[in-house]
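Purpose: get a first structural picture of the assembly so the mutagenesis plan has something to point at.
Setup: two entries, given in the order below. No constraints added.
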Amino acid sequence: MANTRTNEEWLTELTDEEQPQVKEAAIEALRERLQRGIYYYLSRERSDLSRYAPDELIQMSEDFAQDAVLRVLNNIETFRGDSQFTTWAMKIGARVAVSELRRARYRDFSLDDLTADGEIMLRVADNTNNPSTAVQPERATERQDLVRILTKAFDEVLTERQRIAIEAITLQGIPMDTVAEQMDTNRNALYKLLHDARKKLKAHLEQEGISMDYVMNLFSR
Amino acid sequence: MDNKATTEERLAQLMRCICQTREEEIDSATWDLQFERVAEMAVNGDDISVVLPAIEQYLSNAPDCAEEFRALISMMRANADFDREAQDD
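Result (structure tokens, whole complex):
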């Protein structure tokens, strides 16, 4: 069913306690939209799910959509009306799907698995000499020097929590929510922690006389 | 950056993020307030990196939010395609 409801109609119908059939029809229409969108995302955008058969992805998308509908209904009073209602509802659906997939993937991850101070950075520095990286030898040496300076900065200017956050999130690609949970914080606070860490590292590089243009050029795509 | 990025690519990304760091940046709470509106702009064809560079920078530093943003865009496009086909019928 196409989206023919206005925001006001969605809100009225989804909360219509006097006409259960109207409410049920609106809930079903919303569930359909969420499931369609989530299935499309899982089947087209997530190459890591390619091992799943279409039936399994359909089931997965139905489960996520069902969960999302409940969250939409439980939080409907927080809809501010500055977008289409369906966009707001799909945001909730997107977060349910993405966070559930993350949770499953990183179920066994522990921050304790991260290596000791500096090891990750130094290993990366060594990799810059790997022929497979196809970087000019002079450029590789410059990168290596810069990484050593940054590694030192990790130890000298970052707090333990900042270092762990940067290593886990930026260097190892661990989701922020996974790291936040294990650091007993939330995504907002973790983002601020990362921002402070980046500011400190930038200031340190500048104090060492390294220009940001030089760094950008050295690590350009 | 996707989950398949190598550590070296992530290091390069960290270096670029450090270079682009500003004293004041959009935070997660601000992003939460703009998420849907930015998604609608993107689906309507706006280039977010041009129209809202501060948002683009935020997303490059917040991979979880970037992933959710891509998921929302994908979901919106799927439903927009469906609505168009339903109208044509």
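The two ends of chain B are 39 Å apart (CA to CA).
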